TrEMBL record:
GO molecular function, one term: oxidoreductase activity
Signal peptide residues on this chain, from the entry's feature table: none
Domain Enoyl reductase (ER): 13-319
Protein name (database record): NADPH:quinone reductase-like Zn-dependent oxidoreductase
Chain segments annotated as transmembrane: none
Length: 321
């Protein structure tokens, strides 16, 4: 079957590690099944994999991709939950020390077919297209958990999202606004920042700009470039949730600020199967949909990854098959 995979890894030039070509069809293990992929979407995770972050040489070649919507072997339209936990694990899958995401240990979704544990299949609401549904399992699920499970944001609170254009950032803004939070956004790019007002952002700021007042919670995906500003922007007792560090991990924690202002710094990773079901229901009921920057065919996936590497996206890059 045709697939996009990492044949090697390259920390500096990740796209040099990308190969488009044939890989063997999946052979699902006991309790697993096969999904025919109709649409997938790209995440920064795919670039990290090509750079060798979280993907060591012993696992190569590895099919990329953590997001998919498609059709199962019984003909049902499904969304794939990408967090693969140990078969013995019970409870929140994201807390299983043995968990992995598709494309880390098991081949990923950027292929005509993907093998997944049966329990990782979630029915696709008919109101969502395959393209929209394929945006949800990583970036949107991560945003949902950051806002509602980890920061426990409630209607009327003010939330700052660092970065405007990323898949997670656009999901945070859209979900938070739909849930009645006042969403503030920073960006390096005034044009991108301005576009977030259509998603429900109430105010936009330049990266690092002083806010008119401190916020209840900050959503961090950027890391080193914005961390200091995040700590300065949250109110005493407020929460900073971090799920990623696109600009690097090397940020100073400023412990004095953390204890004196009684800040909560909270990590977040992906989400559970239950959260994915609730998120899909939320999209169905509210009518909000993922922001799609562009749609490319699998054979043109390099174009999408390259745009993401250059920070030249606003929302998700969808891959169709
Ligand atoms: N833990 C998890 O489960 C999980 C799940 C999903 C994603 N992540 C991580 O979250 C991060 C975001 O992922 P993504 O898929 O949304 O894509 P992305 O393409 O990495 O998103 C880039 C975002 O970061 C901002 N940004 C990048 N460099 C910046 C800089 N130097 N200064 C200020 N802002 C900067 C961009 O905002 P502007 O261009 O508007 O400035 C944009 O909003 C990645 O690191 C990813 O690995 C983690």
């Amino acid at each position: 079957m045709f697939a996009a995979y990492a044949s090697t890894t390259d920390a500096d030039r990740p796209l040099d590690a990308l190969v488009l070509g044939d890989r063997p069809d999946p052979e699902p293990a006991d309790g697993w099944t096969t999904v025919t992929v109709r649409a997938a979407s790209l995440n920064h995770h795919d670039l990290w994999s090509l750079r060798g972050v979280g993907l060591d040489a012993s696992r190569l070649p590895m099919i990329l991709g953590t997001d998919a919507a498609g059709v199962d072997t019984d003909g049902n339209d499904v969304v794939v939950h990408s967090v693969v936990s140990d078969p013995e694990w019970r409870g929140d899958e994201t807390l299983d020390p043995k968990r992995s995401l598709l494309s880390e240990r098991h081949p990923g979704t950027l292929a005509e077919q993907v093998a997944v544990p049966r329990r990782n299949l979630v029915p696709k609401p008919s109101a969502l297209s395959f393209e929209d549904a394929a945006c949800v399992p990583t970036a949107w699920l991560t945003a949902y958990r950051m806002l509602f499970t980890r920061a426990r944001v409630v209607p009327g609170q003010t939330v700052l999202v660092q970065g405007a254009g990323g898949g997670v950032a656009t999901a945070l803004i859209t979900l938070g606004a739909a849930a009645g939070a006042r969403m503030w956004v920073t960006s390096r790019d005034p044009a991108k920042a301005e576009r977030t007002t259509a998603l429900g952002a109430e105010r936009v700021f330049a990266s690092g700009e002083r806010l008119p007042e401190r916020v209840d919670a900050v959503m961090e995906t950027v890391g080193a470039a914005t961390w200091k500003h995040s700590l300065r922007s949250v109110r005493p007792g407020g929460t900073v949730v971090t799920c990623g560090a696109t600009s690097g991990h090397g940020a100073e924690t400023e412990l004095n600020r953390v204890f004196f202002l009684q800040l909560q710094i909270v990590g977040s990773t992906m989400g559970t199967r239950d959260e994915l079901e609730r998120l899909l229901a939320f999209l169905e009921r509210t009518g909000i949909r993922p922001v799609v920057d562009r749609t490319v065919a699998l054979r043109d996936v390099r174009e999408g990854l390259s745009a993401m590497e250059q920070g030249d996206v606003f929302g998700k890059v969808v891959v169709t098959l």
